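Protein 1 of 2
SEQ + STRUCT:
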Amino acid sequence: MYKVTMGDNVIEVNEGATYHELALEYEKEHGVMPYLVRVDDTVKELRRHIRRDEKIEFLFFDNDTVRETYTRTAIFILLKSIYEAYDKKLDAGLKFRIKNGYYFEVEDEEITEEKLKLIKENFDKTVESKFFIQKTSYQKQDALDIFRKNRMEDAMLLFQYNYKPVINIRTIDYYVKYINGILLYDTSYITHYELRKFKKGIFLIVPDTEDVTKVEFTDPGEKIFNIHNVSVDWAKKLQINTVGKLNDSIARGNFNDLVIMTESFQDKLIGDIASEIKNSGKRLILVAGPSSSGKTSFSHRLMYHMRAVELNPYPVSCDDFFKERSETPVKANGEYDFETIDAVDINLLNKTLNGLLNHEETVIPRFDFEIGTKTFKRTPLKLSDNDVIILEGIHCLNPALLSNVDQNSIYKIYISALTEVCIDNANRIATSDLRLMRRLVRDQRTRGISPKTTLKLWKNVREGEEKYIFPFQERADILINSALIYEFSVLKLKALPMLYRLTEDKEVSEIARRLIKILNYFLAVDTDVIPRYSIIREFIGNSVLEVG
């Protein structure tokens, strides 16, 4: 017998009992079924066996990990449902996520409304069947044989370059997949979801709030959808759209070519933007994007390309237009809120930019963050006809920021790091995870911020992005993807040592372990071949640009 402590209650259970058995008893008493369980600060599946005396906590839909697991389980069911709709001959692929929508396509096929109806029927049948989601551990060679038998080439290639002697494979009924991460106990847990046809494929929409019954489809936006789609398709054409294919290219000695090709593609894109700005005659260039998207490096490279087409760019930072500390908005917890647009002195910013655009002598303030005030000691600036302003900041696409500036003079750029590489067709890597790893490496190197602090603050950063950045991304004239196909392999050696030291820290161990698992899929590479003007240099160091 084992003693299990839940809150103030101690329960005796037999050897071999599972957490699911305890969850069923909990449901009888409280009327709600747990999704997962936390045991000694580790989140576990309900199928697991209790093996000793321990303290546990059941987790529900108000937990971030539960919502992620719900989504992962729904994706698994959808892949099975699409496979069945195409007579078990064609597999679907998860291409990317936008908001709470996960976009799937079938190779060389359009998912019609008729097929969508059949997919939905298959999905509902799978949920109603309450299939137990099996997890089976295989020796590596046996797992590779299963992948080969089930035509799972991407999974097979993934583990050819992975040290793991044992591989876990998941099964729903007959359907086999490798799934990166924990899953729910059975298929009946997916009570709320929606499927929507979009372009050639479909979106799976899942609840993304603490209310599992709330499933709302938000239009992904034509521009953000296109930049995601183009990026993934480009990686696919290069045959480097999965971790296994990237590792294979590196192992075959093609890394130098990959770097040169990727950087050349990005450089041409930036050059084309400079030419477009020149032809448009617009003189105020706005650059916005979420944290660690590479805004600063991009802005510097854009300035060089502008000079190449005979424009003279002048950078202006929104940070220099913060309100005085005494006027800064305060959060409910008493901390200053520097993320809100209300922290910006909008009137002064508009007046300054109008002065510059009207060729008036204008002083740009400098904000002193230590004392929380602006100074006006810079030399006055007066622009000529070929001079343009580059304004960088998280609020640059918010129409409230520059409401008193001539909109015809503005060219708007949105930049983010959108991962083109997935683990395989069932497992994506979140774009926010790429930005977090960038920030982790940069914060410690240039800002003296500990990795633990970076991980702890990330949730607040993401909440600010959802409020102040993402709602305005469709207002951009052009969207830029700053992600580089190879950069997880670059970040690996920089980030892993920091993350390993946090695996036993109760406050951040869960996220640290998850990021370690992602990085360990990738082969590491030497950074010497990466150009010193590359956007990734803003984070790993040794950049020739003034980016910290």
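Protein 2 of 2
SEQ + STRUCT:
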Amino acid sequence: MSSTPSYVHGTSTTPLLGETIGQNLRRTVEQYGDREALVVLSQGYRATYRQLWDATTQVALGLLAFGVEKGDRVGIWSPNRFEWVVAQYATARIGAILVNINPAYKTAELEYVLKQSGTSVLLLSRGFRQTDYRKMLEEVRPRCPDLRVSLVLEDDWELLLRNGAHVSERTLAQRESTLQFDDPINIQYTSGTTGFPKGATLSHHNVLNNGFFVGEALKYGSEDRVCIPVPFYHCFGMVMGNLACTSHGACMVIPGEAFEALSVLEAVRAERCTSLYGVPTMFIAELDHPRFAEFEFSSLRTGIMAGSPCPIEVMKKVQSRMNMHEVTICYGMTETSPVSTQSSLDDPLEKRVSTVGRVHPHVEVKIVEPSTGAVVPRGTSGELCTRGYSVMLGYWNNPEATRIAIDEAGWMHTGDLATMDEEGYVKIVGRIKDMIIRGGENVYPREIEEFLHSHPGISEAQVIGVPSAKYGEEVMAWVKPRPGSQLSEEELVRFCTGRISTFKIPRYWKFVEDFPMTVTGKIQKFRMREVAVAELGLEGAASLRTA
């Protein structure tokens, strides 16, 4: 066993940016004003950096006209639209705190977030898919006393701009002069699997630097065009996507309001994108699309796969069939702005497909024994903790939850189980809450998922633990077959036998067309457990751990 402790610090000769988001965007506009900044294909919208700057100025003035003060919360409830991006930068320029509201929220969640954050101005779209946002807002508004103004993007955008015409740019400049980079400017609600979500509060310094260093790792420049099909309300979209682009003069290319595989393939081709983002399920959907062969990907070179563990076989296909030879894996969480580790463009293939890379610049990572907090030796599994500029200011109006998440030494406890090798590469082996304990044996779902993905007939596999009177828990696999594949339990058990330990072979199998997931594409394993317990008639549901 190694005697080297599982601790690393991301030393860097590139300093942190000591500026606000508005100051950074202004520098980019001065350098790349005539370059294309934002393309939203579903709206036919195109803007250069100078045009984007002017748009953020107009909206900032409009919000000032509505009486938005520094520190006021401005909610945005919308799928991916150009107005979302403009609002992101406009609110940062006036020191308002943008509250990201999940497009999939229902009335109870909407009411909770508006009240908990004290949102006073809400920008919302008319709706998303079959949901009418205006009707839902009408229902909860009487119970949201702080909410003064609501503006529907499709109906009231021009009103917002007209109102701004009554405020001088000098007033905006005066507001901007009062801002500091450590000021909070964003609240992102973590998707809690039990209880209500918590509002991770992030500063200019948190998210601007994280986006900047993601872009640095991908070697972004003004010639890059980044296809962003992941949602803006999430760090993946607004930080790793938007801020990585605007801090480097690259172009944000938005295929549509929400992910749709064909629109992504068409966007990459039409806009000659050099980079593509997605969670593994998105890349799987693109690779499996019946029209995939019609598209060529010669413009692509890089991108990010993140959000959930990436199956090795999927990574290999993304590199070989989509020309993304410099694709990287990122790991992080909303509370750390979000990225803590990232693979490098020139990492060996084995490292890029089996790890989440090494520590980000100016960030510290350690792996500890969960029960004692002691740093474990390299190669030993433990809880991953992060410290540095990227750690959130705290959970909004929730000091108790903040104390639980961030210890006295400033370490954010992630709840993820990981190992670190001698070279500092980190491998995520599961969630502390996800780990299956079968008859005293620790079983990591990720390991079994990786193995099942090597079966040619499996498109995607997810593994969970379900209650067992005999063993405490048993292993269950949900399998999505490839189109045209005929799979059976017997065949898959044979496939596993002799190749993985007997206690790791799933006791239960379920064949599905899709998995329950969040709007960001994250698999909801707690929902899978609920379904499994109900369908299998298993006892002990109350003791089931949730992810």
